[in-house]
Predict the structure of 3-phenylpropionate/trans-cinnamate dioxygenase alpha subunit.
Amino acid sequence: MSTADNCPSADSCSTQPEANASIGRMNRPEELNRNMDVSTFVDSNGGLIDRAIYNEPAIYAQEQRRIFARSWLFLAHTSQFKKPGDFFTTFMGEDPIIVTMDKTKKIRAYLNSCRHRGVRLCRADAGATKMFTCSYHGWSFDLAGALKTVPNEKAYPEDFDKNKWSLIEVPNVQEYKGLIFGNWDHEAEPLEEALGDMRYYMDAMLDRDPEGTEVMGGVMKWELDGNWKLAAEQFATDWYHVNMSHASALMVLSPTGKGPKPEIAATPGRQFVSENGHGAGFPTHPKSRFDARPVHEYYDYEMLRERLGDAAVEGPMTTGHATVFPNFSYLPVNGSIRVWHPKGPNKIEVWAWVLVDKSMPDDVKDAQRLYNLRTFGPSGIFEADDGENWSEIQAISGGFVTNRVPLNFQMGIGSEREDGVYPGKTSELYSDAAGRAFYKHWAKIMNTPAWHERNK
């Protein structure tokens, strides 16, 4: 095998040749890495999806190799790291990851697995440290990932070199306005290019405040029955379910207790459609702002119009929804950002944060936090509805006949266009356009060899 076959990139191997070259250096049976052609599972032009993509173990295993091992994945927010040694542990797909700030204040990410016997090196969710020490045999690594301490080192062969056993580093870590993403592919297109026009829609949440954003409190975590794509796709494309699935929640939030007025319930809006699988939907009715009153009263909308533009304030900043492919989603009006961590074909672990503007007074930040918990926290009045839908889809997907019936994603076919108001292509709010684009991109990269398959 060549060097490039054994690590995320030849460049990263040049700094730690033996450490990174150990990725995939063993000769494995080809069956463990066999890929299937998934093009027949997704008919993006006809708007049909084979539901086997949600429960087939072989497809899930291929996603780990070709989706999560080569996409830009959300890791953390910059506000979680204030000084060298601060760390946060997360996942890229099912790979455990340590994100930390090194002594130069650079944010770095490592595979959270000791190079000795493979135990999870850091078991804390977050904290501060000077060294990462394995609780199994005591191997210790510094903030730059270098192996520093090996108990009973004299028992190892003379040619044992600690420099060759550093932590496996995620070679590509980049930030966009406070959001930190990682990619195992050193040669991946830059994060901002991968986001493309999606940046405009993200900015409606991330760029309201000249001082930026910060996460408030810790991360909320809960498990759901369902496939990760069900959640990611819904947040990219599905306003259609709101009036039905969330009818009771809308009644609770409406002033009359009877739900929103018809003109608001049938709100106009747009849906952004990205060829990279991202998607965002948003109403454009001026009263489509179901946010906490103190937050609404805090904002100077004239100032925001000058900063972001009229269209952004009237659209993406409202009660919308969005997904950055593959599994990072957000809700701009209540500051919810979340990752749909895959835990097998039939399980999702949701990690969610409350995002606030840095300049907000403490009482406004707290209002945002409480509103977030009531609506889209683990027991939020909207969140519970969504989880129930996804678990119901998954619960019956194992049936033989059920699994042979395609799913319909035909709403809004042919409506995608450049409307001259919002960047990129958009469709109507009530549309499956971003969902079709999500699965089209999913199928494309599932059928494309990744970095670890190059030059084999």
Residues 71 and 183 are 6 Å apart (CA to CA). The domain at 3-34+73-174 is CATH 2.102.10.10 (Rieske Iron-sulfur Protein).
